[in-house]
Amino acid sequence: MSSWQTPIEKLKGVGPRRARALATVGVHTFEDLLRYLPRRYLDRTTVLPIRSLRPEQGGITVVGQVRAQGLVEGARGRSRFELLLDDGTGQLVCVWFQGLNWIRKQFRPGQWVAFHGVPQRYGARLQLVHPDYDKLEEDSSGPLRTGTILPLYPGSRALERVGLSSIAIRRLVYTLLQEPLPPLPDPLPGWIRERYSLLPLQQALTLMHTPPDWESLERARRRLKFEELFYLQLLLAWSRGGEHPVSSGPRFAPAGALFNAFYSSLPFPLTEGQKQAIREIYRDVRSGRVMNRLLQGDVGSGKTVVAIAAMLLALDSGYQAALMAPTEILAEQHAAVLREYVEPLGVEVRLLIGGMARGERARVLQEIATGQAQLVVGTHALIQEDVRFHRLGLIVIDEQHRFGVLQRAELRRKGLSPHLLVMTATPIPRSLALVLYGDLDVSVIRELPQGRKPIVTRLVSESHREWVYEFLEGELSRGRQAYVVYPLVEESESLDLENAQEGYRRIQARFPHRRVGLLHGRMPSGEKEHIMRAFKAGELDILVCTTVIEVGVDVPNATVMLIEHAERFGLAQLHQLRGRVGRGPHLSYCFLVAASGRTREAEARLRTLVETTDGFQIAERDLQLRGPGEFFGTRQTGLPELRIANLLTDQDILQEAREAAFALVNIDPRLSAPEHQELACWLRSRYPVSLELARVG
Ligand code: ADP
Ligand code: MG
User: Fold this and answer.
1) Among 59, 63, 57, 58, which residue's Cα sits nearest to residue 43?
2) Domain 456-612 has CATH 3.40.50.300
3) What is 40-152's CATH superfamily?
């Protein structure tokens, strides 16, 4: 009998080449293949006849035969690829504008294919633009004739190259299911499976590949979703040390000289939201319990001022405060802003980043250790590396969604329990915040400071760029400044994107009498800072840059944000970029220059941005468009990736999984009981970090 850990190459139908291709999608062993799940299922009830399609009907599937296909020359030499699909009830055109060399080799006349997308009206015809597709059996009577549910597997180029289409993968899985294999170990403890009526793992996985009906499929899915969410919750439970964490924290003194001097020196009245946030923070730091607070506020809502107030409360009580930014350039900018506010009060700001000279770094480390450095700004390295604080009372984290949620555990591992203030411009629906951050309290700044005018946003096609340049020139001649932003070039893709360097030359050529600067991520940090300073001081008119300016930059005199290849950016990112203008008294403008022939998702993102400047609305749209996994960037956070569960739509299962995880952590925090060995073993192999957390908790 073989084992589940048998290399996939040992399976009939898999040779060395296929084994290598399967490895690229994470399938190394028999078990991996069993866990390689269909991404979609078809049967007669889910496929629509082409004749019945209506424009803009969301996410439909059609199945038919390829009748004709070929490249079509479009306007201005831009080709597209078109395919004519026939399902016996009607015909439909599928269109691609990009990746033509790949797509033109994918189909053969007569082939059965399933296409998924949103039908759009184009002239007299209906078409699908850049649809998803699955190639089906070459059976003349049609693939859906058997009354069963047809699983469709995620494909990739590497898989297709070795003949592993969806059908071929399905055959491999059938072969695997014939193998004599021992029962698959189930990480979920029996008592949890019973309490929540969950199928055993092996049965659930088998059903996913060969569902006899939709109801069984749903039961199988529920079991697998539960498992994923259970691991997520277990990790969070550990990172907090159970439902009731030990929570004593430094008790700060009443507001003192620094705080009061800062408060009365502010050049503007605080908004209600800012005042409320400061009151809430004050209550926390005076309580004797440790603060765990999330400060939400849209771009430009003035979170920095709130953070400074909090840090001065720490200083007034004889504690140190630290501010962590996601990148070095942002750390540098934060340091500069902080200095403007606190140096007049006699407080010095220390910056600790990677690019420092060794001697200077040693000096700063020394000052941090002796407590001479009261206010320290840096990146994540501030808590990761061997930085020793004398008396750390508060950590402020800017733009938390890039950091993740595990800092608290990291700090605890170092034996620290400072107050924690996490600032984010990404509004998170309340229910999700609870699940993800649990005991984090939330302060929200809802309004922008008085007198801000909404930023005028326009979507422009590439052919109208000259018009935008003329407009930009008009703003410059009034003494304003402008950003021109390019997406980062991914070298691996042959996509013909201009990078910032080329853009820089083009802008220089178009505006020969203007002072143009270039800023991108690969420049040495000293140079970056120099350019930023020059732009801020008004010594540059136009700043051409990559997304290094995405968050935090503050130049109130800049009124134009021109974003090239806007279709390549995510919604939240576009919103952040737009937030770089409209920070002063002048009316500001954002131009989104986008290629024609963009995908449906890109179009939806750009439209959203044109329609609203409300960050909360934009975040909600973003969550819908991208799904929670990417929205929260769970990959960077070190949280398990959700492959089948959905944080938005599976809230019921999430609640149960949460209950189960906290119950387990309360009974057996170290997973030492025999009935938890399978789980411990699985976690150790998948999420080594989580076990470290278990040791801390
Ligand atoms: P964000 O929330 O995006 O971090 P910032 O803290 O950078 O926003 O603030 C944006 C700009 O608004 C800064 O120039 C800041 O000085 C200014 N600002 C902050 N609070 C107020 C206020 N109450 N009234 C007017 N301007 C303010
Ligand atoms: Mg900010």
Assistant:
1) 63
2) yes
3) Nucleic acid-binding proteins (2.40.50.140)
* Maximum Cα interatomic distance, the chain, rounded to a whole number of Å: 84
State how far the Cα of 179 lies from the Cα of 106, in Å rounded to an integer.
33
pLDDT tier for residue 634 given thresholds of 50, 70 and 90: very low
Give the ligand at the shortest distance from the Cα of 445: 1
- Cα distance between residue 220 and residue 198, in whole Å: 8
Poorest-confidence range of 285-299, 458-472, 485-499?
Answer: 485-499
The ligand 1 atom nearest the CA atom of 306 = 6
Taking the centre of ligand 2 as the mean of its atom positions, its distance from the CA of residue 424, in whole angstroms, is 8
According to the model, what pLDDT value does residue 239 have?
64
Segment among 26-40, 483-497, 500-514, 598-612 with least mean pLDDT: 483-497
Q: State the SS3 of 596-664.
A: CCCCHHHHHHHHHHHHCCCHHHHHHHHHHHHCHHHHCCHHHHCCCCCCCCCCCCCHHHHHHHHHHHHHH
Domain ranges in the chain are: 40-152, 456-612
Contacting residues for 672 by C-beta, under 8 A, at least 6 apart: none
Nearest listed ligand to the Cα of residue 301: 1
Q: Is 304 in the pocket of ligand 1 (CB under 6 A)?
A: yes
C-alpha–C-alpha distance, residues 286 and 251, integer Å: 5
Please work out whether the CB of residue 65 comes within 6 Å of at least one atom of ligand 1: no
Task: Give the ligand with the smallest distance to the CA of 444.
Answer: 1
CB-based contact 394:285 (threshold 8 Å): yes
Q: Return the higher-pLDDT residue of 196 and 144.
A: 196
Contact (CB, 8 A) for 169 and 36: yes
Ligand 1, atom 15, lies closest to the CA of 302
DSSP secondary structure of 509-554: HH-TTS-EEEE-TTS-HHHHHHHHHHHHTTS-SEEEE-GGGTTT--
**Ligand 1 near 615 CB (within 6 A):** no
Say what the pTM is.
Answer: 0.61
Is there a shared CATH topology between the 40-152 domain and the 456-612 domain? Answer: no
In this predicted structure, the answer to whether residue 304 has a pLDDT above a threshold of 60 is yes
Q: Cα–Cα distance between 104 and 94 in angstroms, integer?
A: 12
Tens digits of residue pLDDT in 306-316: 999 999 999 99
533 C-alpha to center of ligand 2: Å? Answer: 17
For atom 10 of ligand 1, the residue with the nearest CA is 300
Check: CB of residue 230 under 8 Å from CB of residue 661: yes
**Residue 579 banded pLDDT, cuts 50, 70, 90:** confident
Determine the pLDDT at residue 138.
58
Which tokens in the block code for residue 422?
A: 């996490």
Q: What percent of the chain has pLDDT over 90?
A: 45
- Is there a contact between 60 and 21 (Cβ–Cβ < 8 Å)? no
In the chain, the percentage of residues whose pLDDT exceeds 70 is 85
DSSP state of 255: P
E strand map for 54-102: 60-73, 79-86, 91-96
Closest ligand 1 atom, residue 301 Cα: 2
Q: Which is nearest to 148 in space by CA: 41, 38, 43?
A: 43
Decide: 302 in ligand 1 pocket, CB within 6 A: yes
Residue 393 Cβ < 6 Å to ligand 1: no
